Amino acid sequence: MAEEIRIPKLGMSAQEMTLVEWMFGDGEQVSAGEVLYTVETDKTTVEVQAQASGTLRPTGEEGHVYKVGDLIGVIE
Predict the structure, then answer these.
(1) Considering the entire predicted model, what is its pTM?
(2) How far is the C-alpha of 55 from the C-alpha of 68, rounded, in Å?
(3) CA 69, CA 34: separation in Å to the nearest integer?
(4) pLDDT tens-digit series, residues 13-22
């Protein structure tokens, strides 16, 4: 079963953030705990770790702004 990758809630005020960079490309293998992508709010940049191991299938695009909870990919 695929593990959904969503924009995390990082604080009380941040409602949206920019997807800065994917650390892996489509089809690459990732392991739980590895830094998967970075996001940026108006106050900080945060590295987000993979919550599962498997094959990355990103759908979110670098440089785009997403709301908290938006789906930006899956790990198969």
Answers:
(1) 0.92
(2) 23
(3) 20
(4) 789 999 999 9
